[in-house]
Design a protein that fits this description.
This protein has a three-stranded antiparallel beta sheet with strand order 1-3-2. It is of the alpha+beta class. The chain has a single domain, classed as Arc Repressor Mutant, subunit A. The mean pLDDT is 90.
Length: 113
């Protein structure tokens, strides 16, 4: 007897872990925005439109904790904080590009309906 009815199977633990981070609203867009190079909080706020400053700060902290983003403080004056992708974060950029390509090819019809 098939222990997985209808071909269902448990999600891979690594996929589950990835979506714990990438499944949160805004995280993918922040990573994508940082793909253009290091930037400031204000730069990210302008690029990732629609996100509140509080949520942006929260998501940047989470991404830094996940070792996908670095936060560098230049004591100035004036004090400047710069955010950049780590090597692990940069490795996500092709994945996000593929996901965007897939969405354009497969979800456009649902968006236009």
């Amino acid at each position: 007897m098939d222990p997985e009815p209808h071909g269902l199977h448990q999600c891979d633990a690594a996929v589950s872990l990835a979506f714990t981070i990438l499944g949160k609203r805004w995280n993918g867009m922040i990573i994508d925005a940082l793909g253009g190079g290091p930037t400031t909080f204000t730069g990210l706020s302008r690029t990732v439109t629609g996100i509140s400053d509080a949520v942006l700060a929260d998501r940047l902290s989470e991404l830094a904790e996940a070792l996908l983003v670095t936060r560098t403080v230049d004591p100035g004056p004036p004090v400047a904080v710069t955010y950049a992708l780590t090597t692990a974060g940069e490795r996500l950029l092709p994945v996000l590009q593929q996901l965007g390509d897939w969405a354009s090819a497969n979800l456009a019809a649902t968006r236009d309906a």
